[in-house]
Amino acid sequence: MAASLRLGRRGIIIGLRLxxxxxxxxxxxxxxxxxxxFFLSPSFLGAPxxxxxxxxLSPTMEExxxxxxxxxxxxxxxxxxxxxxxETDKAIITMESNDDGVLAKILMGEGSRGVRxxxxxxxxxxxxxDWKQVEIPAAGAATPSPPxxxxxxxxxxxxxxxxxxxxxxxxxxxxxSPAARxxxxxxxxxxxxxxxxxxxxxxxxxxxxxxxxxxxxxxPKVTSTAPETAPPAHLTPASGxxxxxxxxxxxxxxxxxxxxxxxxxxxxxxxxxxxxQSKTTIPHAYASVDCDLxxxxxxxxxxxxxxxxxxxxxFIIKAVAVTLKELPEVNVTWVADGPQPLDSIHISIAVxxxxxxxxxxxxxxxxxxxxxxxxxxxALAQKAREGKLLPEEYQGGSFSISxxxxxxxxxxxxxxxxxxxxxxxxxxxxxxxRPAGAGPGDRGSNGMPGLCRQQLMTVTLSSDxxxxxxxxxxxxxxxxxxxxxKPQRMALV
Length: 493
What we know:
Blueprint: H1 2-39, H2 42-45, E1 50-53, E2 63-69, E3 76-77, E4 82-87, E5 92-96, E6 101-106, E7 115-116, E8 120-125, E9 175-176, H3 178-187, E10 202-203, H4 205-218, H5 266-281, E11 284-292, H6 294-305, H7 312-326, E12 332-335, E13 338-341, E14 347-349, E15 351-353, E16 356-358, E17 361-362, H8 370-386, E18 399-403, E19 422-435, E20 451-464, H9 470-485, H10 487-490
Parallel strand pairs: 9-10, 14-18, 18-19
Antiparallel strand pairs: 1-8, 2-4, 2-7, 3-6, 4-5, 6-8, 11-20, 12-13, 14-17, 15-16, 19-20
Helix pairs in contact: 3-4, 7-8, 7-9
């Protein structure tokens, strides 16, 4: 009986202990779930962001510059709203939003240059989220760095190499690196006052810069004790050439012969890349011809009486377009597989801007009148100077025209704009005297043929020798001259 009571009491005690353990585990699970819910809530980690990355706004764009943000942090954004202005390799294009929400954080401010494609530039949150609690990604989240190679299992741990102590000065003339000699000679510093840290007592560039900093901090520069007219023998260049000009320091007046490095813009870099590609991969051929502008000048005067203002360049654009329509074998481009004929005639006109040269396009120029071409050319040139050209307004041309006549250039040769086959370089018009006709009415009082004035203009065609040979280029220039010298003929083609 007593044994049964003891066993029953032990069973009750064990049951109570198990009940406590189960209740404790339930309480722990409940606490863990509540904590997990708290730490994963937006109020703790922040609102989930909508990433805005640097987009590719042109086919050749690799990086861009952020000119101006059109939205401020905290402002609501609707899909299609302009967010910021980005300078590409061609123009300044407005980046639009693809989502609705609130602009929460600007990561790349105005003036950021060389922002690569895909770089995170801003964060948005959805409507109703607290934009001030946006979750900002880590600095290296966008582009994770490659993992460091793990050391071999048998190799001992590597300790960072310690820099050896400065070597003692060697007797005799100091040993100078070329950069150190240049710095010391430029600023008139005594090499004996430099503490060398290079191997075998060599004075490095860093040693010379440290001495220069000390000299600038003290005020007057430390000069050599030797006379200026006779520098030490070990400082005289072996070649006898004069020392290079000093490098300019920002905020200080540069010495004579110094220079200041100016970073290249995206447009300049792309121009340099395409010009190098054109001159190294395209066999250029050149042909020139003189055109008589007498009929064009007279027609301009007649149109001006009717308050229609057109330029000589507008007639040139029309003449090129009509000539391409007559000779479609010139209206081609070079692709990887070879020549590719074009169905449309789009004329690219070179426009000089503060950021560089850009070629907006007059589309279907052969089907437009001279007055319509003039209006399009004026509007495109204005947009190009303001950097507001759209991609479709400067991409896809079939023939380029570069006119430097307004700058006083009589004749020049232009570089082909790939993948196009030709570019026409237009010079300044000039007045020349030529013999008049051989009729009796054209002779002077002495019976000799008289002289008349002629308005001439030299144009030079640069053509891709793979697509347009010399014979085809000659025929093109001959037809172009006929169309330009007889403007009424262009209306009949």
